User: What shape does this take?
Amino acid sequence: MRVAHEMHDGYYVNLGIGIPTLVANYIPDGMQVMMQSENGLLGMGPFPTDDKVDADMINAGKQTVTAVTGASIFSSAESFAMIRGGHVDLTVLGAFEVDAEGNIASWMIPKKLVKGMGGAMDLVAGADNIIVTMTHASKHGDSKLLPKCTLPLTGAGCIKKVVTNLAYIEIADNKFWLKERAPGVSVDEIVEKTAGEMVVPDHVPEMVF
Amino acid sequence: MSGFDKVVNSYEEALAGLADGMTLLAGGFGLCGIPEGLIAQIKKSGVKNLTVVSNNAGVDDFGLGLLLQDRQVKKMVSSYVGENALFEKQVLEGELEIELTPQGTLAEKMRAGGAGIPAFYTATGYGTPVGEGKEEREFNGRMYILEESISGDFAIVKGWKADRYGNVVYRHTAQNFNPSVATAGRVTVVEVEEIVEPGELDPMHIHTPGIYVDRLIQGTFEKRIEQRTVREA
Assistant: This one.
């Protein structure tokens, strides 16, 4: 998975709830990365074996987990101090929409019941290095990479990198910059499914995993 | 009770003074680290029109969800309330008010409330619906919003062990919001799995010093798991 390339040895990483947690399975052998879970765990390990399940040991998705050797546990206030204070090296989270100004919408669809933003607003406000992972377009084919987000925002002007099922794109100067395409995906398809203004170089390399 | 001994012997005594219309702060993340016996007592007491500040609202038949069954809650201040169908129903019917607050802002509001800080600036929520109507200010080229702190009439907390003086230790991620909640209650009530004598806990390892704790009770806990996820042995 492309996102794993953004991880470096010694990184503290927060993976948002949902699809992006798949990223943990793709960390290269020999690289040490500590996963931060915003309910108060730095050094989240894999799910426990059945006999080790502990109701007091969960992640931010409320799943039972373990702690790795060298982990630490702390309060929610401390957890968000490290997030808001910019101490987490990389944040990966999902979104409904991202726009060319770096705005992100990920928590609220008007007229549908709102369940809450959880820690997403704190994560996007606090992190310098954020990667959004999402599908490039909706099931109906509508682009999620827009000139301007249509849904209520989670954060303003904070997103610089987006990885979709089709491409790796960076955001700067109110434009999308196409950097890499997924294997077998044509530049034409990416352009067609990107509603916001996108800069396309002459050569767009395929992602390497 | 005498001196620094905070131990009470009944749940009635633990929550004496909790009345209609009060603000209640509750520790816990999902169903992890929630004061189960104190919530049960609040349900039993029938107290109404509560404003409850808690990261989540429990599930239909457990945790703070129990207080929704008899419509004891007027307003919830939470960051995520997705696991509770009864909650959704009461919000849609206009019986329950919800103030959604970013999780880190919610934790900091209570930390600040307990520390005597009335408000703080944060970048979280700037430019979003959360920032609407709030004071904005620029520091070092970045925009922030002013968030007011939270304190409550009562705070209910779940600890692992405490000594009689109310020095509390939490277990694993059952810590979560509990230490911040403990600081921000006018009356702070802590429910623990085990009460020990002063001196049995190492002073270096105390999470919540007894000065924040008014009443302490030993409970028994179901510790329900929301998402039991396991791997092969």
